Structure to design on (206 residues):
């Protein structure tokens, strides 16, 4: 990264984070310890009814995985952010966010009390007047979700490693919500959630 950092934040394991990334600024995610999934949502900062759309993004690029060059499209089919650098090479758009309900269904009732990404999104989104109806299918940066020939999805060990980065450029003022995934029942976080770093850099400093 050659950008001059203006805001740098370490997001602890299992925690939420949010920020507004202005047009032309970049947001760099750093997987500090490796194999940590980062659940991600993006909204137009001035009109949150305009938000990331997995169907529009997948349809436009003809691929369910994201990497360098991928454009995150809104539900109005307009660009929100573009992936401009990627050390990993493949990121998930279909695995969704863990929740108390899905944990219970997949892993048993004893997991009900465990914190989950949906709760992170709801708590962080409430700061901006967002509620449950504003949560849409999210991106899972660093998460490895292969698709088998029969259409079966898997959640397996991640492709990332300590220090690997992903950088997005904002194509408009964007509100970003992040859940640094708390999941401990599958390998998406190596069964041990860890911290990640978020760096917002000024426009035009590359």
């Amino acid at each position: 990264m050659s950008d001059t950092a203006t805001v740098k934040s370490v997001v602890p394991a299992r925690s939420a984070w949010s920020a507004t990334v202005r047009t032309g600024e970049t947001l760099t995610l750093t997987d500090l310890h490796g194999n940590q999934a980062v659940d991600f949502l993006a909204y137009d900062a001035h009109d949150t009814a305009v938000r990331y759309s997995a169907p529009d993004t997948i349809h436009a690029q003809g691929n369910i995985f994201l990497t360098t060059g991928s454009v995150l499209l809104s539900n109005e089919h307009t660009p929100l952010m573009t992936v401009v650098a990627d050390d990993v090479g493949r990121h998930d758009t279909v695995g969704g966010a863990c929740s108390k309900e899905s944990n219970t269904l997949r892993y048993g009732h004893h997991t009900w009390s465990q914190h989950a990404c949906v709760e992170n999104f709801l708590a962080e989104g409430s700061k901006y007047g967002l509620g449950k109806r504003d949560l849409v299918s999210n991106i899972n940066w660093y998460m490895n979700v292969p698709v088998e020939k029969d259409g079966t999805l898997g959640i397996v060990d991640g492709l990332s490693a300590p220090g690997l980065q992903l950088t997005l450029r904002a194509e408009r003022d964007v509100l970003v919500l992040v859940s640094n995934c708390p999941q401990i029942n599958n390998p998406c976080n190596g069964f041990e959630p860890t911290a990640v770093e978020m760096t917002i850099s000024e426009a035009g400093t590359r």
Summary: Residues 117-125 form the longest helix (9 residues). The mean pLDDT is 90.
